[in-house]
Design a protein that fits this description.
21 helices; single chain; mainly alpha
């Protein structure tokens, strides 16, 4: 059996050793380092629903300002995904890895000192750039290091660190709300705490070695000091050095373009439905009979995340290499549509606390065990190495644009026709995602990245 991954694997021309390697301690370490950004992603993006409830009366903000605070970070994360994703293909994964969490930490810390609503909106734009930048680089690093039989598990676990953020956020909020501290201090602590996890892994990310697949594609090796060294000066790498070149390759290739549309479109539709429900969960829970106070809403949110969302992430990770990406995404979209439809169509569902919480929770379970996880995994597998982070950045950016629209529109839909309008819109988005998945995305389980992207091993490229 192959041993743990080491720098010598860069000289494995067809990645046979890398693809057959066991899940080593080094891979688990990479998974944790990569995943901590998604812990913070979930914490920062989803805690804002509670924060907004705390500051609405204090700052007398308008519905437009409320929507912008909740959604601006999602919009700017699209920009971050595009920028960091493209640069990671141009310069290398390791050369940029770690800087995205510095941007994230700076944004979170700065938000805690915002003096008014306009400053908070602007600083959450900075926060979002860091969040978006983490998506393509972390996913691709894990995918390019992982063995093919467990790649789905490992990439899914990186993303599943969101589950911890989903749980810690409302738990921390409920604890602070029980202390008697002023609401102004509580929301600033909640927001500022988002800077701690990314800072904790910054140096570990900077010390990570470049992935063997990036080095091979560019005919490079990496010396002990971390510098890139050309393998053969007579066979220069066909590297995408222009910023726009990678995007051009994606949209002009007859194989890559349908995959890009499928991966990006499914992510857009999933996030439109998911982020609207999640970021606006305090607003959704306000529809419950009895109008629970904020602490009770936070605890209800925590219950839903612990009982439904976290097991969904775990089920997706465990099933990714057994059921397959396409199977899980198809099941997830179909059952999301069913759960959203029932919440929209059952008369008086908001007055039935237990049935409503169960349905709302099931929508979370089938989102996590489904497209919320698979849309993250897919782009890290189905594109060639030279445009892999670029393509992942495009797909993630489209997802965040969908999330922005979902979060921005959800409060208006709730005010217009309540749960019926909001949840039926989420159901329609889920059905559309199901159709795109079936029509445009391949199954990837058990296949090497080179098989999926139809790339030749390095030795064949050099012989040509």
């Amino acid at each position: 059996m192959a041993g743990p991954i080491s720098l010598s694997d860069c000289n494995d021309p067809d990645f046979t050793r890398l693809d057959s390697a066991p899940v080593s301690a080094q891979l688990w370490k990479i998974m944790f380092i990569s995943g901590m950004g998604f812990f913070t992603d979930a914490y920062d993006l989803f805690i804002i629903g509670i924060v907004m409830t705390l500051i609405k009366s204090q700052w007398h903000i308008s519905p437009l300002e409320e929507s912008l605070v909740a959604s601006t970070a999602l919009l700017s994360s699209a920009l971050g995904a595009l920028l960091f994703g493209r640069i990671a293909d141009m310069l290398g994964r390791k050369r940029i890895y770690g800087f995205e969490v510095l941007v994230l930490a700076a944004g979170a810390l700065a938000c805690s000192f915002a003096p008014n609503i306009l400053w908070l909106i602007g600083l959450r734009f900075l926060l979002g750039i860091g969040i978006g930048g983490d998506y393509p680089v972390s996913a691709t690093i894990m995918s390019e290091y992982a063995c093919k039989q467990h790649r789905g598990l490992l990439v899914s676990l990186v993303f599943s660190m969101q589950a911890a953020g989903l749980i810690v956020g409302p738990l921390f909020a409920a604890g602070l709300l029980s202390t008697g501290l002023s609401h102004d201090l509580i929301w600033r602590i909640l927001v500022g705490a988002g800077a701690l996890p990314p800072l904790a892994v910054y140096w570990q990310r900077r010390k990570l070695r470049e992935t063997p697949r990036f080095l091979s594609a560019n005919n490079l090796t990496e010396d002990e000091s971390g510098h890139f060294v050309p393998i053969d000066q007579n066979h220069a790498a066909n590297q995408s050095i222009s910023f726009w070149d990678g995007f051009h390759r994606l949209v002009t290739d007859e194989t890559m373009l349908p995959r890009l549309i499928g991966a990006s479109g499914a992510w857009f539709l999933m996030d439109a439905a998911y982020y609207g429900n999640t970021v606006s969960s305090p607003l959704v829970l306000s529809a419950l009979a009895g109008h629970p106070d904020l602490r009770h809403k936070a605890l209800t949110q925590l219950f839903i995340f612990v009982v439904f969302a976290a097991p969904g992430y775990l089920a997706a990770a465990l099933g990714m290499d057994r059921i397959g990406r396409k199977g899980i995404q198809t099941i997830g979209f179909a059952l999301m549509a069913a759960a959203f439809s029932l919440m929209a169509l059952i008369p008086g569902i908001a007055t039935m606390t237990v049935p409503f919480v169960v349905l709302y929770g099931l929508s979370f379970f089938f989102t996590e065990f489904g497209p919320n996880t698979t849309t993250f995994v897919y782009p890290s597998e189905i594109f060639p190495v030279r445009v892999r982070t670029t393509a992942h950045g495009v797909a993630a950016a489209m997802g965040k644009v969908g999330g922005f629209l979902g979060v921005f529109l959800f409060p208006y839909l709730m005010r217009w026709h309540g749960l019926a309008a909001a949840e039926s819109t989420a159901a329609v988005a889920s059905v559309a995602g199901l159709v795109l998945t079936i029509a445009l995305l391949p199954e990837t389980k058990g296949k090497s990245l080179e098989e999926l992207s139809m790339e030749e091993p390095r030795e064949l490229r050099r012989a040509a």
